[in-house]
Amino acid sequence: MLKLYKLLSAKYKWYSAITVFLTLVQVAAFLVIPILIGNIVGFIAAKTQIPAGTPAIPVEVEILKIKFTFANLDEATKSLSIWFVIFLVIGTISSLLASVAASYISNAGARDIRQKLWEHLGRLSEKDIETFSHAKILTRFTIDINRIQIGLMSFLRTMIIGPCNLIFGLVFGLLTDLNLSIVFGVMIPVLGLTMIISGAVIAPLFKKEQKNYDDINNESQESILGAKVIKSYNLEHLQNTKFEKANLSWKQVSKKSWSSFNSTFNFINLFANLAVAFILFVVGKNAHLTAKDPITFSKVIANATTFVNYVMFITIGVVMSSFVIFNMFRARVSSKRIMDIMNTTPDIAHVVSDNKVTDGLIEFDHVSFRYYDHSEKNVLEDVTFSVKPGEVLGIIGPTGSGKSTIAKLMNLDFQTIYGTVKIDGNDIKTIDTYSLRKNVSHVYQTPLILSGTIASNLNLANPDADLGMMENAAKNACAFEYINRFEKKFDHEVVQKGANLSGGQKQRLAIAQGIIKRPKILILDDSTSALDAKTEAQVRKNIREEFKKEKITTVIIAQKISSIIDADNILVLEHGKIIGQGKHEELLKTNNVYREIALSQLGGEDV
Fold first, then answer.
1. Which residues on neighbouring strands pair with residue 60, listed in sequence order?
2. Which residues form the ABC transporter domain (predicted)?
3. Of 76, 69, 70, 66, which Cα lies nearest the Cα of 32?
4. CA dihedral in degrees (307, 311, 312, 313; nearest 10)?
5. Cα angle value 17/23/25 (rounded, 5°)
6. pTM of whole model > 0.70?
7. Separation CA 313–CA 165 (nearest Å)
8. Looking at domain 2-342, does it have CATH number 3.30.360.10?
9. Domain limits of the chain?
10. Fewer CB atoms inside 10 Å of the end CB: C or N, the chain?
């Protein structure tokens, strides 16, 4: 929790200090009030014991070891009543201000932590993010940060009020009446033992509860994303059963943790009331023996009233401390889960250097790669090739042969294990990150279209793009025709993931994003799979014409030979190795795998 608190800005730490000060003022003011109330009640009780016409009796009051003398009971009652109102107003105002400040800090702090978590996730590589499931990341952004927000509030307010009420209530009770304080000898150990047992029971339950939340999110996400498959195979009952199991598990753990907490609270409340009943019984039984005159009687009543108030202070302190422990345990578990992400060092560092992407020369020098250290085999094995600026490289091979992995290494989504990937003669790991992201466009087979408009999605690739640039990119991607049919054209609303666009429309919009970026290197990773052969051929032709003068380097990864038939060089991959390299006509003669693919797709006569 303290590690997360350090993430807050200096402004909020300053506000925190003010909140703590106001809370201490509140506690101090309210701790004095029981003494004032006790004496006021005692004086009123004493006046009922004084016969009419009795001369005024001077009254001496001791508050926090400071003695005050009044001419009579009326003056003492009036003066202490005024001080009671003053302390009550001070305590109430400071409590209100402290609550407002703590609420502001906890809300703003939660917002800042969420923002820092988001920014840190943005710096992590795909490999880093894969170590956490989407469900776990979602839980951290929602439930975990919400619990940290509650924890911050407890840290700034309840954590101070509870222990202060407990400690100073005990001290003031001892100063009020040492004889009655024997109650504390039983009360404090019993309440302390109750808190220890409660903490030991509840703490492990919170960890289980957070895991249950992850399971619920995971099942929800799986059911939503896989809705089509679930309905196609009539798996609704199976998914319902899996979700019900996760939900029931959470319910049982949550019920147990709250039951434990409520049992602790009820036991503390019961024990405190028994202590108060015992005190009143003792005072009531012995009052006639100790109170020999009205003034002495008023002191007995005052001490009893004050002492009972401090017993309640101690009880409130214990209850609030239990709330603190409850919330801080939950916040501690949540903060650890968030720090697990924040402490993850990015696998791929953000680089600021003079090495820029200038021409688009790509070189792979004996590159081998595996996604996980524990994997038995490499996904790529000793891959070597080069692509000159302005050339078109085609990559083809069976599923799982490593085609998309090459694209990810070109884009530095992952780093090589062995060998070197170079762009314009520089190791890709040393190239300025901003220059790399700006000059390499990677268009995926399944494009991620964000909610907004067609224009806003194009602006993601190039924030400076005007309407003319958007129209040009759309025409080259063969997307202008369908965009122009929309009533609002480029202002047409797009829902999340582009669900209101067809597969082909999304792919063409994604290609338009790649074009409008005006990159030095354009990677089309099976990104025309949803297009018909005529449209696909037109897109390739348009890209060649559009970037003829700029000499853009194009890498086309495909399952279909028609997508790469015109490439300047074609790589044939199998099991992560290059088993053939050359132009289409050359590979037909020299490479059996390529020829078999061509025969199966184009037919004998076309080949």
1. 69
2. 362-600
3. 66
4. 90
5. 105
6. no
7. 6
8. no
9. 2-342, 362-602
10. C
